[in-house]
Amino acid sequence: MKKKMSLLEVNQVSKYFGVLKALDSVNISVQENTFHGLIGPNGSGKSTLLKAIAGDHYPDEGNIKFNGNDITKDSPEVRAQNGLNLKFQITAIFPELSVYDNILLSLQSPESFWKLVLSKSRTSYHDRIMDTLVRFKLVDRASSLAGELSHGLQQWLEIAMAVIRKPKLLLLDEPTGGMSPEERRTTGELLLPIKKECTLIIVEHDLEWIKDICDNLTVLDQGKVLDDGTVKHIEASQRVKEVYTSRV
Amino acid sequence: MLQIINKISFFKAILHKQGRVIPIVEILLLILLVITPLFVGDYLTVIITRMLILGLLAISFELCWGYSGIMTFGQGLFFGMGGYAVALFANKADFLQLWGVVPIGLIVGACASFLVAWLLLLGKRPPELIFLALGTLTFAYAAERLVAGWYWVGGGNGMSIFEYLRIGSFEVEPGRLFYYIVATILLLVYLACRLLVRSQFGLVLAGTRQNEKRLAFLGYKVQKFKALVFCFAGAIAGLGGSLYAHHEGFIGPGNVGIGISTMAVLYALFGGAGSLIGPIIGVIAIESISFTLSDIDAVRGYWPIILGVILLLVVTFKQDGLLGFVVTQRERIGSFGIIKSTESKSLENLHSLKNEKKDVSS
Ligand SMILES: Nc1ncnc2c1ncn2[C@@H]1O[C@H](COP(=O)(O)OP(=O)(O)OP(=O)(O)O)[C@@H](O)[C@H]1O
Ligand SMILES: [Mg+2]
Fold it and tell me: How many domains does chain A have?
């Protein structure tokens, strides 16, 4: 069987915050069109790793390859234009814009200055935006201000903003944070169909939830990769069990 | 009394429901713009023309602050440079043509603001608000000192333009014709800005104000966009300055520095930042108040103090300015998609679509 090319390769990445080593020689490889879960106790470096991949900060050591290119030094704008997208742990929607405009803003970002000034594309985007709003159960709230949405809906809005761009790689930092169990289940259902379109890295605390939707898992602990592999492998792993039973 | 208040709030509620207060204000002001000189004498026409020119300065500040989040104390600098440029052309080269004055102002303003933007905005890292404010302030201050000490441009006395602005060989004195020229230019500038801030690009600007960092993660080159707006605003300020110099027949260090830059800030905050019409209202209000106060014998000696207190009160207690009395924050930000017109219809369609899907799944 031919091995699929990996879309993302993180090689020996380390990141220091002062004396704290938040990431310690982390290696991760993510195959195209798979869901990759990232788990670990609080403060183990999950968000730091996602931010390094998206370009929010730059690693002190190691390199990151995306789609075969070294992106270690690229700015976040460049990475975003190349198909990499991050949903931050703390929701970062635009609270004083309508839900609809939030999505339009996300969708129109590749356009040139003049095209934006002349508003050439908003009509042609309409159907696509409405479809996405329906898919993420936001259509009733299309003209509400994003800041007025409940926390759960804001999370969905942010996922919708990312998904509509058809990114190659989507990074979700705790997409179900602050959601009810019912909403979590729905989020899982919303995410599954994305697998056809893009690759996903999800950070989650809830092992039960994440193992249902992910193909592979990486476990971080104190900035180091504790173990990685298929969901089955991680479930059976003794080392992971130790960390999870002793600390979470 | 209570009845009147009830009526007013009822009226306000209707207006707000429509979400269309700004267009009404705009149309009222447009009508005033057209008819005012027909009803007031030459003296007042000249005073009002000056206000309209300052309106260009106010809009230029508003594009930077209210729309792009750039706190600039440099608009006076671009304004003054536009003025000095045309004064030099008039005095040293005897060039007074309107068709040249307008582009000179625009180009000088755009070039000067491009230099400032390049130094302050386009660095490696996005600059802090305070850095921009102090940076532009320093430029304005330096320019003021420079022209005050530079004999060739008149030094501390500034430069007078002794001849009138010309169209061909026809002389345009300050008065009704000058008024309508300025009014037309202001209207065109206003419409261009309106197009800009209501466009999909305006949506990017709205996003910048709310969460600049997030915008970069969507792939926008935020600093470049901001620099573009800054240059556009600089061009408008320069245009204002060039008209100002010809209208007043004078430009001096006081028109290039911190004083006039601060006025630009006050016009916008007083009238209501976050909209284009607010700063225009601010100019008219502030300039009318100071004109009236300086004319009343009883307060002649200390009217600037009264004006200062009024400004302080409004800026402190009514942070959305005079316009905030009639316009909601929501309307100021506005919406940018095409959902407004098609909203109800497409929502209905989608509802039925959703219901069908539900039926299938259950
Ligand atoms: N900007 C920063 N400056 C200093 N220390 C930081 C910074 N960001 C993160 N850290 C530290 O790095 C470590 C890893 O943080 P990180 O946010 O990546 O953890 P996490 O796995 O996402 O945790 P959580 O599950 O709580 O979200 C923590 O000890 C944190 O305090
Ligand atoms: Mg985290």
Answer: 2
Share of chain B above pLDDT 70, in %: 88
Question: Which residue type sits at B173?
Answer: E
The alpha carbon of residue B273 is apart from the nearest alpha carbon of chain A, in Å, by 16
Q: Largest Cα–Cα distance of chain B, in whole Å?
A: 86
Residue B9's pLDDT band, with cuts at 50, 70 and 90, is low
Nearest-by-Cβ selection for A92 from B214, B220, B353: B214
Mean model confidence pLDDT for chain B: 86
The pLDDT-based confidence of B339 (bands split at 50, 70, 90) is: low
Q: By the CB < 8 Å criterion, does A189 face chain B?
A: no
Structural domain harbouring B111: 36-361
State which of A166, A196, A229 marks the end of a domain. A166
Query: Domain check: are A2 and A79 in the same one?
Result: yes
Q: Looking at the structure, tell me whether residues A116 and A75 fall in a common domain.
A: no
- Using only the alpha carbons of chain A, give its radius of gyration: 18
Same domain, A142 and A198: no
| A116 closest CB neighbour out of B204, B210, B214 | B204
In chain B, the number of structural domains is 1
Helices (H), A41-173: 46-54, 76-81, 99-107, 113-117, 122-135, 151-163
What is the band of B104 on the pLDDT scale with cuts at 50, 70, 90? very high
A88-to-A73, A171, B89 alpha-carbon distances in Å: 20, 8, 55
CATH number assigned to the domain comprising residue A224:
3.40.50.300
Q: pLDDT tens, B105-126?
A: 999 999 999 999 998 888 777 7
pLDDT at B226: 92
Cβ(A157)–Cβ(A109) below 8 Å: no
d(CA B6, CA A242): 69
Cβ atoms of B76 and B258 closer than 8 Å: yes
Query: What does the H/E/C string look like for B248-289?
Result: HCEECHHHCCHHHHHHHHHHHHHHCCCCCHHHHHHHHHHHHH
CA distance B24 to B34: 16
Q: Which residues span the domain enclosing A2? A: 1-83+168-248
Considering the domain architecture, whether residues A2 and A45 belong to the same structural domain is answered as: yes
Q: Best mutation site among A13, A15, A46, A220 for ligand 1, i.e. most ligand atoms within 8 A of its Cβ? A: A46
User: What is chain A's length?
Assistant: 248
Type of residue numbered A9:
E
Statement: residue B268 has pLDDT above 60? yes
Give which of A93, A3, A45, A77 is closest to A203, Cα–Cα. A45
Q: What is the DSSP string of B151-220?
A: GGGTGGG-EE--S-EEETTEEE-TTHHHHHHHHHHHHHHHHHHHHHHHSHHHHHHHHHHH-HHHHHHTT-
Which token pair is B214? 């997030």
Same domain for A143 and A193: no
Distance CA B307, CA B316 (A): 14
Q: Which two tokens stand for residue A48?
A: 């730091």
Last residue of some domain: A103, A133, A166? A166
